[in-house]
Amino acid sequence: MGRAEVGTPKYIANKMKAKGLQRLRWYCQVCEKQCRDENGFRCHTQSESHVRQMLIIGENPQKKIAEYSEQFKRDFLSLLKSSHGEKKINFNKFYQEYISDRNHIHMNATKWVSLTEFVKYLGDQSICSVEVDPGKEGGFTIAYIDHSLEAIKRRELAQKRERGDKDDSEREQKQLERQMKKAKMEGEELKKLQKKESENDENKSESDDSKSTRELKRDGTQPIKLAVSFSKRPTATVATRPKPLKL
């Protein structure tokens, strides 16, 4: 069956299909050619151009795999830095963003067998911050770590500001604790003073009660009786003139 002529509906449909993502197993990284089905991929692998490229790579396959791995990592990190910066994102979600470009380097041409192996490599090499994603998406979250001089200075400034805020918070906490301790001591002293005043009032009340028991108490139903005793009035002695002496 021949190819569809240019401008026909079938030709346009084939072009639209070619723009989208196709099966990874039907993509030839060596020739950078995407096939739409298994039959097309088998025909491509038997073509002269593909065989020639495979013979060239066969002379030193490890070198080509290392080149693909380095380019894959470079493109992956470049997109991560430009699109998300140092913010966290789910690894699988971001990988879908990366492979949306149909001309990207595919992982099956690199030294990493799976995505899990690649994300662990990024974490072990301190290229990205890798954590287990507790959300619904699962997997891992990654965040790009910028090792440039400006980024290092920016992180140091942020850490210094954070330490300053922490020191201010600790000073405020200590000052609050001192105020609470002082208020507690003043409260205890006030309680002691109130207790002392209360004891003094009680002692004064007891002394007043003892005085009141010694005062005269009158029963309102009985008349008041007074016992009065009269003693003899002393008699006055009249002084007599002395008689004149007779000569």
TrEMBL record:
<protein>
    <submittedName>
        <fullName>Domain of Kin17 curved DNA-binding protein-domain-containing protein</fullName>
    </submittedName>
</protein>
<keyword id="KW-0238">DNA-binding</keyword>
